[in-house]
Specification:
The protein has about 80 residues and is α+β, with helices and mostly antiparallel strands. It contains one helix and nine strands; from the N terminus they run E-E-E-E-E-E-E-E-E-H. The chain has one domain. It is globular.
């Protein structure tokens, strides 16, 4: 299973190319609620991981992870 995965709120999701601008590589990025992260495998970053919390949501490089994960769940259900 090659590709880039994100593990967020206990769930692992495969990222499609370009879903989070500035990220590429293989492996899993685990995002923590305190805005920390760890990368497993060969996760490579083109830019720094710009993590931030706004309200109850977490953003990475300006992308709302809650929205991204919700969109992935919706795609799976179709």
């Amino acid at each position: 299973m090659f590709g880039l995965y994100i593990e967020y709120k206990g769930e692992r999701h495969k990222l499609d190319k370009g879903e989070i601008p500035g990220l590429r590589g293989w492996g899993t990025i685990r995002i923590y609620e305190d805005c920390g992260f760890e990368a497993k495998g060969l996760a490579l970053f083109v830019t720094q991981m710009n993590l931030s919390n706004k309200g109850s949501s977490t953003y990475i490089n300006g992308i709302n992870l809650d929205d991204l994960v919700a969109n992935k769940a919706e795609q799976k259900s179709k």
